[in-house]
Amino acid sequence: MEIIYNKTGKASVVSVSGRMDGVSAPEFEEKLSAWIAEGETSFIIDFGSLDYISSAGLRSILVTAKKLKAKNGRLLLCTLKDTVKEVFEISGFSSIVPIYESVNSAVEQI
Amino acid sequence: MSKIKLPATIGHLERLVGFVSDCAKNTGFSDNRIREIELATEEALVNIFNYAYPDGPGDLEVSCTPQQNASLKIEIMDNGMPFDPLSLPDPDLQADISERKVGGLGIFFMRKMADELQYRREKGCNILTFIFLMKKAD
Prior knowledge:
- The complex is a heterodimer.
- By secondary structure, chain A is α/β, with parallel strands linked by helices.
- Chain A has a single domain, classed as Transcription Regulator spoIIAA, CATH 3.30.750.24.
- Chain A has four helices and five strands, in the order E-E-H-E-H-E-H-E-H.
- Chain A has a five-stranded mixed sheet, sandwiched between helices.
- In chain A, helix 1 (25-37) runs parallel beside helix 2.
- Chain B is of the alpha+beta class.
- Chain B starts with a strand and ends in a 5-residue tail after the last strand.
- Chain B has one domain: Histidine kinase-like ATPase, C-terminal domain (Heat Shock Protein 90).
- Chain B has helices at residues 13-27, 31-51, 105-113; strands spanning 2-7, 59-66, 71-78, 116-122, 125-133.
- A five-stranded antiparallel sheet of chain B has the order 1-2-3-5-4, covered by helices on one side.
- The chains are: A alpha/beta, B alpha+beta.
- The interface between A and B is medium-sized, with 24 and 28 residues.
């Protein structure tokens, strides 16, 4: 898994590529947690190059979304591949975290 | 049939999932179906890593057997504490962000992705048997 952070205007765009599994998900959670601690409150997570996500990945997203909700912040996801989208849909996570088709349409929401 | 036996620790996740993934690929499964098999397998393995051996190290064994009817049988065996993951209820999928719990999803994915899933305790071992069809029945 690779995580790239990009600050564009009001939002922080975080691009995650590779696999978000039991090994790598804690790293995502730690990085986001550190950026939240630095004062960032709006994140767009670009999953365009994410090939795989397991419950460990969903857990790290839920923990991050809960932290941001407590700070009136936002977590938006975008550009999910079909197999990743399927995991969000069957788990009900697609109704917990907003999902957008493109980075631009997510940015417009911030 | 091919099998692999490794210590039951998270550090071996990639190798174990990769083993199953290669078996599915060699059997002719599609990339999408392979992702689903990887998901079910990871969830089963992580449960074992976390709960099977509270008192010290232990091993687990994964075996893959292509079946006659365009399906793959995957068995995961450990000799840790008796644990039937299928005895647990599904999580509440409707809960909103504040109410949503972080646990329980793993077993839900195992059930959802497999065409058949069975647990048995035999000679001091937990044995989980998955059957995956090339095309998942809806």
